[in-house]
Amino acid sequence: EMAAIPPRHTWDKEEFERRAKERLAKAEEEEKAKTRPKPPGPQRAMLKEREYKVDLDSKLGKTIIVGGPSAAGAATGGYRCDVCDCVLKDSISYLDHINGKKHQRALGMSMRVERSSVDQVRERLQANKRKIDEKATASTEGFDFDARIAALQEEEARRKREKREKKKKADAEAEPAEEDVIDPDLAAIMGFGGFGTSKK
Residues 3-23: pLDDT tens digits? Predict the structure, then answer.
């Protein structure tokens, strides 16, 4: 006998329609979640001028004995950033690091600079002008041009005197050497004529 043929499968159209609608609703929800604006991040201070001097000259021209990999962080070669806990090999990379985004974020600053108003710019320009004027007046106060010129002339005269004395001394030392002339008879016996001098 023949094997029984299974009945034809019937699909529940309403069930699958409901599932399709749920899937579409879920996709729309996810799309809305993606386009929703993110909540603002932590408020960081605006970038501002450094209040301390970067000391790169302290290690200039110095020899430092560097330990191996087991040495403490401060004893290893290079420049150490305590804020970010890293060691940099040279001064250029150290400067790049402390001016960079990672270090500034660790300090709690954004990389945005506060915009200056026109009044702030005028105030800064006037302060710079005052500073230059103060330097100019400080350099001319207590400065006697005539005394300075006299001192320079005296220095020039002293240098000339020393030069003359040095030349006289050199000439005095050179004269005895010329007196050590070889006896003319001895020179004739040895076959010397003269050494290109006009003296006979």
Answer: 677 777 777 889 999 999 999
Is there a contact between 194 and 200 (Cβ–Cβ < 8 Å)?
yes
Average pLDDT in the 160-175 region? 88
Return the structure tokens found at 180: 């050590």
118: pLDDT strictly greater than 80: yes
Query: What tokens appear for 38 in the block?
Result: 């993110």
pLDDT for position 24? 95
pLDDT of residue 76: 65
Which one-letter amino acid corresponds to residue 49?
Answer: E
CA–CA gap between residue 167 and residue 179 (Å, rounded) = 19
Structure tokens given for 155: 């220095």
CA distance 44 to 106: 10
- Listed in order, strand segments (DSSP E) in 51-173 are 79-81, 86-88, 109-113
C-alpha to C-alpha distance for 84 and 73, rounded to whole angstroms: 13
b/e 185-196 (16+ beta carbons within 10 angstroms → b): eeeeeeeeeeee
Q: Mean of the pLDDT values across residues 185-196?
A: 71
Say how far apart CA 181 and CA 195 lie, in whole Å.
11
CA distance 93 to 168: 59
User: Residue for token digits 């150490």?
Assistant: 80
- Summary mean pLDDT of the chain: 81
| Three-state DSSP state, 80 | strand
* Angstrom distance (rounded) from CA 89 to CA 64: 13
